[in-house]
Amino acid sequence: MSQASKEVEEGSLFAPKFDANGLIVCVTTEAATHEVLMVAYMNELALEKTIETGLAHYWSRSRGSLWRKGETSGQTQKVLSLRVDCDQDAVLLEVEVGGDGRACHTGRKSCFYRALGDEGALVFSAEGA
After folding, report:
1. How far apart are the two ends of the chain, measured CA to CA in Å?
2. Which of 122, 117, 107, 40 is CA-nearest to residue 75?
3. CATH top-level class of 3-124
4. CB 101: neighbour CB atoms within 10 A?
């Protein structure tokens, strides 16, 4: 392992790796329950705003714009913890959810409300129904 890799993987240097499109994957969980709420993307500005304000900001690939979670829905996400994975190409946010406690644009608490069933079709989970 090179010295640079060792510093990224084992050191204290915060050096997030953005992909060729300038994005990094962000997994967001509810701090109290550890439930995965959503997966989104951040660009450098979204990550900076998240760190600066303590509120989750993301990059909308479909709209091509920065957005603060809850800006229009009221479903804010106060960041309690920000982590990176071993090679710093993914971010994990642990958040306290505001508003009605939902994170998904479909009106559900989590975007992960379906599971693959035995027959190969998606089945709605009890929590997400």
Report:
1. 47
2. 107
3. alpha beta
4. 11
CB 27 within 8 A of CB 34: no
DSSP alpha helix (H) spans, the chain: 3-10, 44-53
- Residue 107 CA to residue 28 CA, distance in Å, equals 16
Task: For residue 38, count CB atoms less than 10 angstroms from its CB and return exposed for 0-12, middle for 13-18, buried for 19 or more.
Answer: buried
Q: How many CB atoms lie within 10 A of CB 46?
A: 23
Sign of CA dihedral 46, 85, 34, 40: positive
In three-state secondary structure terms, 68 is strand
CA pseudo-torsion sign 65, 69, 75, 76: negative
pLDDT in tens, 24-77: 999 999 999 999 999 999 999 999 999 999 999 999 999 999 999 999 999 999
